[in-house]
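Exercise 3.2. Students should predict the tertiary structure of the chain below and write it as structure tokens, then compare their answer with the key that follows.

Predict this chain's 3D structure.
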Amino acid sequence: MTIAQNVRNHLRNKPYLLEALEKRIVNLSELARQIQEELRIDNMSAVKAALRRFSEELQKHKQKREEKVLQVLKRSTMAVYDKKSVVITTEEIETKTGMKVDLLGKVVHLMDRSDTPERISALVKHDNCTMIVVHSPKELEATPGVVAFLTTLLAEQNVNIIEFISCWTETIIVVQKKDSLKAYEVLSNLIG
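Answer key:
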């Protein structure tokens, strides 16, 4: 295996370093020194050259990937539903509204707050939530990075996602009511 292949393999499991290389915010000399020590490679110049080439490739791929993600999101629409509850139980709850996901011993219920039973044995219960549904074109399925883009965007704005469901062309994001306006503003700047 070549030095370049060793360097690439070493970095593939370090997403924070990949992102730093993509954004050109890492000192290549220092990173090369660290990798040289970790992989016990004698040739510092070869490690640095491998990093430089890999960084350029990552930047090109990132730009293309982001363009595709933004194209999908520009053709998406968004709907906001207020007064929702998220309830996680060990058994199914009979309700008139909402949806459920059965997760082998746990059932996640997303329902109208008014439809949530008062006496319930819940593992977790979140009242006063807002559900944001992003409806995207079919190309969503074949576009890597859309979910990562949306969740990173919200995380950077300090918006905590209570529940997240991605199903075919629908992306369902549930946040606390206090975060709903910020989440809506951030997402509506991107979405069609």
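Discussion points: The first helix runs from residue 3 to 12. The chain is about 45% helix and 25% strand.
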